[in-house]
Structures are given as C-alpha cells and as structure tokens.
C-alpha cells in the first residue's frame, strides 16, 4: 500500500499552543488512527525507531501520528513534568483532533513503550470517547511502586540518572526549519528546564503526586481493550500480569525475553512485534473478527539458566501460555527459612545480615535497553558471597516458577533506617548464579508506603517483600537460592548508616509461585521478527559502548560507563545529530555516605551554516542528613562555539526516611 508521509503538521490546542506531529497516511481514507505521544523528539530522537513501526502500520491501513509533548521536540509551550495534568489534558485534545480529521474514521488507538506506554494507560483511564484500544509496552500501573524513582520505598539511583537524562533532553532546541522562533524558544527552554530529579526526590512516600497517573487507583476506569507487553530483561515486568488480573475489559499480556525496546528491535531474541500490534488494532479499531480476544490471557517466555553476562546475548527457554490469569496451574509452595537453607516447617533461631555497601556489582543497569551494551545482570556468585544465602538442596526434579514470589519475615534492626534486598537465583552445578527476580524494601515502610515509621532498634517487626514477576524453569540438579543483603548498589541508594538486620527465623518464609502443567496449550508465540524498513540515515560516527571498574587508593569502588550514540544525517531533512553520555558510580564498601553518582551528556545539532552544541553535567551525593543534587548546563552556537548560556543549579533535600 502506498503511504504519504507528512514531516510536520501542527495541532492547535484550545489555548493556542501548537503541538508538532509527524503523519504517515495510508492511501485508503478515512482510516483508523494510531497515536504515539512522547517527549523524545519525532524529528530526530525517535525517527529511526518510528521508521520501523509507523511505516509498517500505515501500510496495514492505519493513519499514524507521532506527537511531541508540549515544550519538547518542535512543540510549543513549556514542559512541566512527566505525566502531568497538562500532558494528559493535551493528550485528550490531540485524540479529539485526530478523530475529527477527514483522514480518520473516528477510531483512535494508542501505542507506546515506557513513557508512551504510561500515558496510553493514563489517557485510557480518562476515557476520551475516540480512544478505542491501547498497546502499552514496558509501563506501570503504579508510579510509586514500579517506576524509575522508588522500589519498595527505597530510593533508586536511577531517579537521579533519569532526571539527568531528562534534563539533557529538555535543553534541545526545536528545528529552525519548522520554528522561526526557535532561538527565543530555545533560550526559554534552557532558562526554565525543570530540575525533575529534585522534584521526584521530594516526594519520598506514596502521596497524591504518585497517585496521579497510577491507573491502579481505579481499575474500572479503563474501558478500552489493552494489550500489555514487556520483556524479562526490562525493569517494567509487573504491569502486564496486574492488568490482566484486574481489568474487566479484554486484556492480554505478553512477556518475552526482551530488554527495554520494542521486541522487533531487541538485542535479545527479536520477535514479530508488528503482527501483534496489527492484530490487536485490527480487532478493536477495524472491527475484524480475528480472534484477538480469544488469545491466551498471558503468553510468556519461560526462561532457563544460561551463562549470565552483562553483554547482549540470546536467552534460553521456551514460550508458554496460560488461558486465564491468575492460572489454576500455579499454586503457592511455602519454604521456611532455616540457617543456610530451607525447611518444610518453621525453624528457630536468628540470622544477622550486614552487607558491605558495594554489593550489587553484578546487578546490571536498572533498565537494560537504555544503553548500547554492557547493561545486563551478570553471574551473581560474587554478590551472593557477600550476602546471606538460603539454598535449596539440588533439585531432584525441575521446578518452574511463574508469578511473584513473596518473602515474609520478622526482623529487628540496630539502626532507625534500614533496607533489605532479596534476590532469587538459579545456581547451576558449576556454581554460576543467575538472577531470577529481585526486590528491595525500605524497612521503615514495613507497614505502609504512605506513612513510614522510624524503626526502634531491638524491636521486632513483621514485613513482606513481593519480588518482581518472573517465569523461570530450574533444571534438575540446580539450586534455588534466596540471597538477602542490606545494600544493593548501584541500583538502590544506600541508607545513611550501615545497618544490621536480624531475621527471626520462626516467622520467615519464601512463598513460591510454582507452576505445574501436565499438558501445555498452544503457546501462540510471537515468532521471529519480520522484515521492516530502516531509516536510511548517513552514519557519520559509529555508536560504541564501554564499561570499566576500578578501585581508588582509599578503597572506593568505581563503575564508569560511556555510551556514544553516534552521529547521523537524517535523509528526509538533512539534520545532523550526535550524542553521548558518561556515567560514574562510586562508593566505599564500609561507608554508605560515600555513595556518589555523576553523569555528563553531550548533544550536537547542525545543518549547513547552523550549529548547536549542548553539554550537561549532574551530580548527586549525600551525608547522613541530606541529599545534594547539582547540575550544570552549557550551550553554544555556531562553528566557533559562541557561548549562549552557562548555568548551574543546586538542591539540598532532607533524607527523611531514606
């Protein structure tokens, strides 16, 4: 099918602001529409990915629209915050505008990964009349529990990392070819770029800020069919099963082996994303009776042990399916914690856990798929050696886990603030430990994420940790390991003082979701990725990725990474864009207040006699009382790099219960 591509179309909102959109229109008109609504710049940021998706969807008879959120890319206005009321209100207007166009038949679907997966669900929650279906990839239903800011009430270092990335992203100018006021607008962006990491860090409990945009607040509000997709290497694994469990409209879940990417461009066993998308939208936007509602509720890749490495490599496992979810084939098995292992009955005694701060060196990047490589979790054996481990006997028969394991425990502490990280691992007979699932808990949140409490040393408390979703097959002869630690750096920011957590074993157990199926239904696996178009950009500098570890003279452990995303010329409008990022994590094993993170982003834009360069630097450190956040921006213009603006900001934020 022939398609028409419109590089830029303006959507005028009710208050006069204009949002920039790129359109792919099929030759058949009117047609149902697919919207992707992001702050990542349609002109260059997502252009390579968009070429692989919207072109294919348009050829399948859909009008596709990629819209820049206000204040980003080429759109007018001021960006304020992720998933803000402005963003969602604007999104409702965009959907109404699309439905009213003569090339649209009035039916609109939304698709997106991460940010676009979030706001697809959030807009469905608001029930705009024209929105008829959603495909949400790598998203969340609870912004506090399962995003990039907090985990179990613990601060994720990615709160600062992601805030730093958004800081850099938001300094980029609109394209002068589309905006005559680009320079004035750019200066306004530079002067007023939000300090997002500080905003998020001030909201340390699950308050109304996080409830906004969390669709779990009212499952019944979503009345459009949802296809939820993610991958086991991704950080966002909990939403698809939760959506299938709780929504009353047609909902399906797919979890493959993939990282934080659309599955057809995954580095880990790429799959046929296009057929999944087109099949879902054909059913709910075109009304085709194709059986999409009859697909199994939950299709997933049941992983098996392989030699884990930080580098991208193929997974091992098989595709399975569950007709309904929760599944009647998954039952809870309780293993009680005993000294060094497990017992079928509760045991007496205590176990003390006091970990060095640098445990987590093999944890991998929090959200794999954001870097180029060197980001996956490796062999956990070295981290296990620094943890308190509970090992099963070598399995006499295979054990299959599917769902969320839950650790229930009684504990006491010697500090008023403490945390516990739990990892389930599959250990081979050779001693190679592969992480199956993990989760951390700020023990001050033992009762509530809304109202945490300072812990009283010596007092005994009860808590539980629901580990992240998993689907994992342990082979005969392998060992299931539960590894517990009081630190998990660099994923989790450490507590102000090194703490010792004592488990009271009488009331400690791991509740395992064990899957037992004598006959599996047809898995309906996605299949291998089909051929798709690729943006014919001219590569001027090749991408590359590095990751190095070091130990300073005073014993601090350092992880330094560099990702050069390359430099390319776009074939449609000749814009040349280059970017790279450096990150550094540093901590001393004996001192949690030495936790330190810094990052530096660089961007360059050019076309003929126009050049722009932007560099940003961000840093976060702490002491026992406060977090200290710093950021710096430098922007230049022209071949001579004439300085346009240099500015620095600093924030001091009390630690509270962190």
Structure description:
It is a single chain. This protein is of the alpha+beta class and 658 residues long. The chain folds into three domains: 3-151 and 214-295, Alpha/Beta hydrolase fold, catalytic domain (Rossmann fold, 3-Layer(aba) Sandwich); 154-203 and 536-569 and 574-658, no CATH class; 330-515, Jelly Rolls (Sandwich). The chain is 15% helix and 38% strand. It is built from ten helices and 33 strands. β9, α8 and β10 (251-256) form a beta-alpha-beta unit. The longest helix has 16 residues, at 85-100. The chain starts with a strand and ends with a strand. The model has no long low-confidence stretch (mean pLDDT 97).
How many beta-strand runs? 33
The CATH architecture name of the largest domain reads: 3-Layer(aba) Sandwich
CATH class of the largest domain: Alpha Beta
Rg, alpha carbons: 25 Å
Largest sheet: 12 strands, mixed
Overall mean pLDDT: 97
**What fraction strand?**
35-45%
CATH homologous superfamily (4th level) name of the largest domain: Alpha/Beta hydrolase fold, catalytic domain
CATH third-level topology of the largest domain: Rossmann fold
Overall SS class: alpha+beta
Low-confidence stretches: none
Helix tally?
10
């Amino acid at each position: 099918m022939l398609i028409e591509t419109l590089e830029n179309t303006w959507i005028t909102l009710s208050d006069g602001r204009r949002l920039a959109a790129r359109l792919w229109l099929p030759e058949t008109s009117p047609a149902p529409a697919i919207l992707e609504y992001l702050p990542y710049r349609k002109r260059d940021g997502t252009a390579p990915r968009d070429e692989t998706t919207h072109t294919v969807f348009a050829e399948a008879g859909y009008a596709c629209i990629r819209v820049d959120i206000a204040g980003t890319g080429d759109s007018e206005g001021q960006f304020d915050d992720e998933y803000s009321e402005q963003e969602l209100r604007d999104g409702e207007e965009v959907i109404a505008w699309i439905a009213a166009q003569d090339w649209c038949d009035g039916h609109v679907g939304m698709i997106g990964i991460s940010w676009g997966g979030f706001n697809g669900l959030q807009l469905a929650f608001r029930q705009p009349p024209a929105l008829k279906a959603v495909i949400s990839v790598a998203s969340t239903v609870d912004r506090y529990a399962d995003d990039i800011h907090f985990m179990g009430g613990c601060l994720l270092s990615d709160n600062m990392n992601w805030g730093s990335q958004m800081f850099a992203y938001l300094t980029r100018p609109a394209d002068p070819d589309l905006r005559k006021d680009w320079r004035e607008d750019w200066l306004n962006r530079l002067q007023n770029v939000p300090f997002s990491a500080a905003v998020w860090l001030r909201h340390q409990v699950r308050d109304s800020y996080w409830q906004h945009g969390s669709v779990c607040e009212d499952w019944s509000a979503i009345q459009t069919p949802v296809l939820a997709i993610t991958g086991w290497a991704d950080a966002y694994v909990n939403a698809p099963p939760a959506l299938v469990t709780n929504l009353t409209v047609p909902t399906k879940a797919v979890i493959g082996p993939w990282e934080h990417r659309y599955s057809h461009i995954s580095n880990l066993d790429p799959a046929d994303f296009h057929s999944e998308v087109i099949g879902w939208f054909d059913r709910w936007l075109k009304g085709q009776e194709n059986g999409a509602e009859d697909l199994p509720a939950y299709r997933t890749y049941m992983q098996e042990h392989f030699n884990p490495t930080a580098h991208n490599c193929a997974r091992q496992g098989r595709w399975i399916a569950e007709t309904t979810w929760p599944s009647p084939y998954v039952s809870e098995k309780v293993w009680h914690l005993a000294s060094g292992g497990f017992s079928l009955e509760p045991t007496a005694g205590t176990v003390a856990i006091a970990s060095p701060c640098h445990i987590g060196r093999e944890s991998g990047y929090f959200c794999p798929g954001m870097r180029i490589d060197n980001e996956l979790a490796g062999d956990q054996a070295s981290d296990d050696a620094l943890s308190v481990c509970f090992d099963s006997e070598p399995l006499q028969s295979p054990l299959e886990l599917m769902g969320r394991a839950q650790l229930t425990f009684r504990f006491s502490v010697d500090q008023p603030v403490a945390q516990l990280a739990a990892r389930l691992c599959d250990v081979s007979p050779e001693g190679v430990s592969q992480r199956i699932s993990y989760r951390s808990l700020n023990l001050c949140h033992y009762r509530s994420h809304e109202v945490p409490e300072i812990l009283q040393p010596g007092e005994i408390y009860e808590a539980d940790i629901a580990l992240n979703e998993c689907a994992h097959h342990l082979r005969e002869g392998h060992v299931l390991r539960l590894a517990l630690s009081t630190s998990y750096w660099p994923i989790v920011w450490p507590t102000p003082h090194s703490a010792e957590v004592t488990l009271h074993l009488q009331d400690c157990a791991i509740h395992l979701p064990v899957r037992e199926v004598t006959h599996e239904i047809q898995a309906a696996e996605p299949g291998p990725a089909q051929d798709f178009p690729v943006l014919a950009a001219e590569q001027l500098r090749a991408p590359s990725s590095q990751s190095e570890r070091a130990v300073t003279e005073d014993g601090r452990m350092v992880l330094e990474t560099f990702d050069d995303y390359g430099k390319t010329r776009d074939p449609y409008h000749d814009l040349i864009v280059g970017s790279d990022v450096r990150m550094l994590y540093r901590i001393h094993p004996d001192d949690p207040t030495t936790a330190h993170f810094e990052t530096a982003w660089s961007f360059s834009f050019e076309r003929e006699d126009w050049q722009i360069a932007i560099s940003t630097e961000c840093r976060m450190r702490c002491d026992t009382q406060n977090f200290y956040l710093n950021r710096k921006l430098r922007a230049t213009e022209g071949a001579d790099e004439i300085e346009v603006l240099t500015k620095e900001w600093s924030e001091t934020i009390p630690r509270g219960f962190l």
